[in-house]
Design goal:
The complex is a heterodimer.
Chain A: H1 7-18, H2 25-29, H3 33-44, H4 47-63, H5 74-92, H6 131-142, H7 146-157, H8 162-169, H9 173-191, H10 196-204
Helix pairs in contact in A: 3-4, 3-5, 3-7, 4-5, 5-8, 7-9, 8-9
Chain B: H1 5-10, H2 12-16, H3 22-34, H4 36-53, H5 64-77
Helix pairs in contact in B: 3-4
The chains are: A mainly alpha, B mainly alpha.
């Protein structure tokens, strides 16, 4: 999903944009587009709002580019702008829910034990050709509490490392690890029984090991 | 050291990410050799992580990128100094 960041290209690109080659900003923001949109969708729960906020994020990143210090990747910095934009809009709409308040590290409510199963172990990625499976997985992620969903999004979907995820979300690395663990356990529990049909079809067609 | 199933579950995410130390990894591996349930939990959790990461799950809305870059272009045309 995420292109490996190339720090030299990034630094060079930023220098040239600041020196006046503004068109290069398109190339700088391109690798971050996916993450920005889905982080905002995760915060705002509305596609039109997420898209509008993503555009605003890009404009703010451009206007404030001279403030970027290079102590994180550009993507991390852009995502923290996106997060602020998203949370700002939530507050404005007075829709800030309890689970959006960012520091629930000590929250131990919920059952994070995995579903015990032996009926399937692997659904092949090819099964995602079926819209139904992709929709099930999307739905399971959308149902996660916000603080867990944001971490899954950046760690497992955008494949950012723990430190960059922590910096983008403004939480500690420990919180990222705890939340990711819980999110994966919740997803495994939620999907355990729903994924079974996709696994068994595989062996029906003789794709099995 | 013998560890129980719950202990394995606690560390499953770190185990998948290769973030458990060598001693704990060895203990977990030993447990997995004989515990069918934990080995299925590990495989299914790892599978969920792989499926979630697949680009087909979260696709951008049609036209999102074009609209974003068009908006950036109109900002750039303003020619505001950085």
């Amino acid at each position: 999903m995420t292109k490996a960041p190339n720090p030299e290209f990034e630094a060079d690109c930023i220098r040239r944009i600041l020196a006046g080659q503004h068109q290069l900003f398109h190339e700088l923001i391109r690798p971050c587009e996916h993450a920005i949109y889905f982080l905002l969708l995760s915060i705002l729960h509305n596609e039109a709002d997420a898209e509008d906020a993503a555009q605003e994020t890009a404009i703010k990143a451009f206007r404030n580019l001279h403030m970027f210090r290079g102590d994180s990747q550009f993507k991390t910095w852009a995502l923290s702008i996106a997060r602020n934009e998203g949370l700002g809009r939530l507050r404005k709409n007075e829709r800030l829910r309890e689970d959006s308040l960012e520091d629930l590290t000590g929250d131990n409510t919920g059952d994070f034990t995995p579903a015990v199963l032996t009926s399937w172990r692997e659904v092949p990625a090819e099964a995602l050709e079926k819209q139904e499976l992709a929709a099930l997985i999307r739905e399971a992620i959308e149902d996660l509490p916000d603080i867990y969903r944001n971490v899954v999004l950046l760690r497992d979907i955008e494949e950012m490392d723990v430190a960059e995820t922590a910096a983008a979300l403004g939480v500690t690395e420990g919180a990222v690890k705890v939340r990711l663990h819980r999110a994966r356990a919740l997803l495994q529990r939620k999907l355990a029984h729903k994924l079974k049909p996709f696994a068994s079809k595989r062996s029906l067609f003789g794709w099995g090991k | 050291m013998r560890i129980d199933c719950e202990h394995v579950w606690e560390h499953i995410s770190a185990y998948i990410d290769g973030e458990v130390d060598a001693v704990l990894r060895a203990d977990i591996d030993k447990h997995l050799e004989t515990c069918e349930i934990c080995s299925a939990v590990l495989d299914s959790t790892r599978n969920v992580v792989v499926l979630v990461a697949d680009g087909r799950v979260f696709e951008l809305p049609a036209g999102y990128s074009q609209r974003l870059h068009a908006r950036i272009d109109s900002e750039l045309e303003l020619g505001s100094p950085l």
